[in-house]
Amino acid sequence: LRYRLPRRPSPSDDDGDLIFIKWFLDNGTVAAAMGQRFNYTPGFNSTGAHTVKAQLSDGTAFLERTWNVTVSRKKADWTVLVYSNGDNDLEPYLLEDMNEMEMVGSTEHVNIVVQMDRTPSYDASNGDWATTRRYRIEKDADSRIIGSRLLQDLGEKNMGTEAALTDFLLWGLDNFPADRYQIVMEGH
Fold first, then answer.
1. Could you tell me the pLDDT band of residue 57, with boundaries at 50, 70 and 90?
2. CA-to-CA distance for 131 and 117, rounded, in angstroms?
3. CA–CA dist 45, 71 (Å, integer)
4. Are the beta carbons of 156 and 121 closer than 8 angstroms?
5. Which of 52, 91, 136, 163 could form a disulfide with 122 if both were Cys (CB 3.0 to 4.6 A apart)?
6. Are the C-beta atoms of 87 and 80 separated by less than 8 Å?
7. Among 15, 9, 24, CA closest to 56
8. What confidence score (pLDDT) does residue 60 get?
9. Which pLDDT value is given to residue 6?
10. What's the chain's Rg over C-alpha atoms?
11. pLDDT higher than 50, residue 16
12. Considering all CA atoms of the chain, what is the largest pairwise distance in Å, rounded to the nearest integer?
């Protein structure tokens, strides 16, 4: 989402007072949103209706303009849902698999989404987290460190249960719509 106010050589009012512009998203101040330009990159959980507001002020008076914006997720050709149970002696190998997936990464046509559970006993790499996490795999040339953006940390989950698998699959279908799906299950 980008919006630029009409450009003037120097933003000032008729009295010569400088005009300051603050931007707001959904009624909260947006970090680093000062000036004539507003850039916003929606995050993972940003789908839906939003309100963008510009507030212009010369220090004594102000003027506001508001826009309604809808953020939607584009439907991919494929979504690959990888259920990776590494809460055991397979952990180092499943981390290696995840890093190999990052060599390709997701694209606008293919989402690669991983839910991985780890244990503190086998591999200390990548921050040695021992919870269940969800990632959308992004292209990364480092084959040792996971570079994909963390979408969710679910805490400790028992990935050996039907409920945990069902929750992941329904979440993946809802958040990464596609024409076709592939499910990969890794673990014992």
1. confident
2. 6
3. 10
4. no
5. 91
6. no
7. 24
8. 82
9. 53
10. 22
11. yes
12. 74
- Would you state the structure tokens that stand for residue 99, as one six-digit string? 């890093």
Distance, in Å, from the CA atom of 159 to the CA atom of 132, rounded to the nearest integer, reads 8
35-48 residue pLDDT tens: 677 777 676 667 78
Residue 135 has a pLDDT of: 96
Name the residue with tokens 């212009």. Answer: 56
Q: Going by C-beta distance under 8 Å and a sequence separation of 6 or more, which residues neighbour residue 67?
A: 3, 51, 52, 53
Which residues, 6+ apart, have CB-to-CB distance to 169 below 8 Å?
A: 81, 83, 183
pLDDT digits (tens, 9 = 90+) for 111-155: 999 999 998 878 888 888 889 999 999 999 898 999 998 999 999
CA distance 115 to 137: 10
